[in-house]
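#struct-pred
JK: can someone run the complex with magnesium ion? inputs below
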Amino acid sequence: RVKAEGRNNYQFYDQSMQQQARWRWEIEEGLHQAIAKDELQIWLQPQVSAEHFIIGAEVLLRWQHPEKGLISPIEFISIAEESGQIDALEAWVLDRSLALLRQWQNKGLPECFERLSINISPAHFMQPGFTSRVLALLDQHAIDGVNIEFEITENLLIENFSLASKTMNILQAHGISFAIDDFGTGYSSLRYLSQLPLNILKIDRSFISDLEHNNNDASLVEVILITADKLGLAVIAEGVETSAQEAILAEHGCKIYQGFYFSRPQPAASFYSLLTAQNGFLKLVSTV
Ligand code: C2E
Ligand code: MG
Ligand code: MG
Ligand code: MG
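RT: done, structure tokens with the ligand placed:
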């Protein structure tokens, strides 16, 4: 019996390993074609002020797979990083995002909307050609007025501080600003924060999700807000899902929010409708 069980377990384990390997392979192969087949999409999630104006948006990549349906970036970004496809993928994201922004500027944007945030993978950021690629795209799409912000993670800074800071300084001189994404989950030191041309810390969702019930999380959020303020950095709270969370954050001086409570990420056309429907004001649909 024991043997049989062991064998069953083994087979189960083996099968799931095989399934994982197969899934991985399908993702990797599919990604090669995804751009050419026009399967990638730019989705956007609003970033809102305390007064509930949409002051910016984060670009979130989606992959509309012909058989697997809509795939989250969590499923394919790390695979793209490991297989060396991330540069091509993010070059597409950058190009499409800036083209979209140009299009909106032509059609008209509410005055409150001042920033488009784009996630940049460390592997891509550290590529020798990254800076010139970005500068060429900014030039090509003639973006003005709206700030382009890159979201990077703390670990990128640790791995190669001097190259990272050099790249950031060049891009900052061309109007790009920087946010630390998932702040609080990585390894950045306070010294790094003060030495880099940063604008924003995005408090990771994991500190927000239990904010109402977890005093330690509330204390950490408070410390982050005070620290950021002292360093002259703005803060965005990520993953805000309830009005109670918003209230606690507001009480501690948080001024920018992003999360399902305000709006889920959505396709570009519906985001633009939401943005322009009330001149940038986000009317919350009451949820039960
Ligand atoms: P992120 O940059 O931290 O983006 C925020 C993620 O949290 C998004 O997941 C968003 O949908 C989700 N989110 C926002 N508000 C809430 C909320 O209230 N509750 C919950 N539970 N989740 C919320 P998404 O779109 O699945 O993206 C996951 C991650 O994939 C992103 O995390 C980012 O690290 C990465 N990603 C997305 N697009 C790109 C890209 O173009 N390049 C790179 N390198 N990474 C990307
Ligand atoms: Mg992000
Ligand atoms: Mg994040
Ligand atoms: Mg993340």
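RT: quick notes.
Residues 144 and 167 are 21 Å apart (CA to CA).
Residues 181-182 surround magnesium ion (ligand 4) (CB under 6 Å).
JK: thanks, will look after standup
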